[in-house]
Description:
The structure holds 2 protein chains of 2 kinds. Chain A has helices at 2-5, 10-13, 37-46, 102-114, 169-173, 200-203, 231-235, 241-245, 256-272, 318-339; strands at residues 23-28, 75-82, 154-161, 179-181, 187-189, 210-211, 224-225, 251-255, 279-281, 294-298. By secondary structure, chain A is α+β, with helices and mostly antiparallel strands. In chain A, the strands form 4 sheets. Chain A has a 4-stranded mixed sheet with strand order 8-1-10-9. A two-stranded antiparallel ribbon of chain A has the order 2-3. In chain A, strands 4-5 form a two-stranded antiparallel sheet. Chain B has a single domain, classed as Formate dehydrogenase/DMSO reductase fold. Chain B contains 10 helices and no strands. Chain B has helices at residues 62-86, 89-112, 132-158, 169-202, 207-210, 216-235, 242-265, 276-299, 304-338, 341-356. The chains are: A alpha+beta, B mainly alpha. At the A-B interface, strand 2, helix 5, helix 6, strand 6 and helix 10 of A face helix 1, helix 3, helix 4, helix 6 and helix 7 of B.
Amino acid sequence: MSDLLGPRDPASGAGWDDAPPRKGFFTDTSVCIGCKACEVACKEWNLVPADQAAGLSMLGSSYDNTGALGASTWRHVAFIEQPKRAGGQDLNLPLFPVGPSASDAVNRAADTAMTGDRSQLGTDTEAVDLGMPGFQLPGQRADRKDERPRTDFRWLMSSDVCKHCTHAACLDVCPTGALFRTEFGTVVVQDDICNGCGYCVPACPFGVIDRRVGDEQTRNVGIAQKCTLCYDRLGAGHTPACAQACPTESIQFGDVDELRERAAVRLATLHEAGVPEARLYGEDPEDGVGGAGAFFLLLDEPEVYGLPPDPVVTTRDLPSMWRTAATAAGALLAGAAVAFLGRRR
Amino acid sequence: MTRPTTPDSDGIVAAAAGSGDRPPARRGRRRRGNPDNQVVPDVEFTSYYGRPVVKASPWEADIPAYLFLGGVAAGSSLLAAGADLSGRASLRRGGRLAALAAISGSLYALVHDLGRPERFLNMLRVAKPTSPMSVGTWILTAYGPMAGAAGAAELRGLLPARLGPLPLGWASGLLGALARPTGIAAALIAPAVASYTAVLLTDTATPSWHEAHRELPFVFVGSAAAASGGLGLITASSADSGPARRLAAGGVLLELVAERRMERSMGITAEPLHTGTAGRLMRAATACTVAGTVGAVVSALLPGRRGRLASAASGVALLAGSACTRFAVFEAGQASARDPKYTVVPQRERLDRRRAAGSG
Lengths: 345, 360
């Protein structure tokens, strides 16, 4: 039961002697550019097949056509479009940004200055709305050339991943021991042990792990699958594939203690720079899962990114659940005994 | 209901619950009153394109069927042992055979539900108190052979006499001698079989299961008593059926009371128990259970063949009610996992309360 109450260092709590420092991710979403290199690198390295649960489809959720984390999606980049001013981009102009697209005005000015005739330079084009994602500025509409203040707009992007919880519900409820705590303090499925009971799926408070669906040729079909924090790469002293591929260091890999310090520094920097909405998610060892091994810097409430606002490991209530079940079992035994006390007809 | 995640005319998702500009008045967002004549008041919350936060279990009908069959087996073992000790032969025989059949069906459902059924025995690699499924596996490993041996002893009586005594005469004799001790052992383990399945569901992040954890074990043992009592009413003779009738009535009472208390303590996560498939099943469960109980009581007063038939019909209704209860609880949980509302709203309220108290 030590997993329920738990030491703060999960690897030594799981019985590892001389465990190396706990490894994890700090995903700084304020510098994520939504390139999805992490998704691709993860798929490549870990031989994760196409996600047949989600299928290949346009989801109508900004640039997110991946959908959600799952058995065949171990990194998922979320895209959120919001009518809000992007942090740190306020130029202190009262109506910034305003007016029609700059390119039309620049074209006109260039024509006038150089030839006096717009068609001479071939710049007599005005943007036509084809209903496609265009190049006009956010809030700008091609059919409305009149002066009109642009709406505030920002794009949130965040690469989600398994949290590798200190108190991991998936690991607690696994009945075969297929899920285990590695020496790095991460949580990994042993593919050759898991029998696909599916209990870890509803147990995870973040909706990360899932049972893989697919035809019989699909690798590891029918068993639980999720991020391993690239256990094989870690063992060889390498960085996990997603962090290695990230071009902006939005995904940072390292010792969890050091990552927590880095996160605190980054948070203070952003607050000083005028991004008060920046907040850390999952880094607090006092939270409902004892702190995550993979934590985040977010620019809005967690639920905006599809994350639970206050996740709690379900097994925290397990001792009281067992007591209630024992009481109920006693009631059934007593009730059955009483049923035989009556007079024989 | 206006979900904040609906794209506005500019195609921009108004996921507008940012912390910085959230007015303090947004606390207590659940609308009071009932302006639109809705049964359930709307709740405002934010989600990522309305997608689920937690995953619904990949389980299908096997699991609620197992919940039902496990309850039938457990209650039947209890009735059979009591009947054995008090000399009610027909109730004993029916109970032991029912337990054997129900636990066999349970095992089939449990194996069939696995993603890799051929690896079923991996369940026996470890014994983990943190995993209700592991605990349940060991409970069933203890219970199954006991209920099986007691049931097999009753099967002997069903075989045509010309098959005995050779060549399995000695085995038959052994089964006969073991019937009572194994039957009593099965009865002593049976309450655990009936109640642990509640923990199996509540030890998850599925909102409508976890939030039921204070009462669900009582609902489930009550349901098990009602179902097995109902089955006893079908199998036992009129002279022997008294305990089955009383067990069923007591079970129904416990189930109904516990279920009402459960719904009150679940808050918003009780909603899925009233809507959609789960809601229909829950209403059917209540109707069947109440009808079965009334029938069970009335049939005791009817003489002879009419009483026997009425008892059996009541038993069928009680069994159907129990099955509907299990499927309703199962479906409500699945629905609660698929709708982010049931994950986000209670957690957001908890977080806001903690922040208001100054410790968040």
